[in-house]
Structures are given as C-alpha cells and as structure tokens.
Amino acid sequence: xxxxxxxxxxxxxxxxxxxxxxxxxxxxxxxxxxxxxxxxxxxxxxxxxxxxxxxxxxxxxxxxxxxxxxxxx
Length: 73
Prior knowledge:
15% of the residues lie in helices and 29% in strands. The protein is an alpha+beta fold.
C-alpha cells in the first residue's frame, strides 16, 4: 500500500509553471497509472485534490499540500 501511495505522487513531466497554468481541464497520469485532473483558478493550481504549493523548483520534483490516496488503496 505504501508503494501505491508513493507512486500516486509521481508524475513524469518537466514542464514549467507557465505551461501547467494552461493545462486546466487536462489530467496527469501518475506512476501508479491513476489520472489526476488539473484545475487552475487564478494563480492556484490543483492536481487532484492537492494544491501545488511550490513549482519551478530547480530539482526533479515539486511540493503539494496533501497526501493523495489512490482509488485502489
């Protein structure tokens, strides 16, 4: 179960915030195979039920504000 939860937080993409801000209504596929809808309201980006707290971090990851539980867990 822990591996499923961790894989639910991994999205293989390298786009910057400007591109993601234009992705409202689209979705990401996680490493676990689940899809998470992207919503954008003003400067707020939501992926599934989590808010993207920080983006354009010069690293290979980002930060969200919630633990996402896959539907099969």
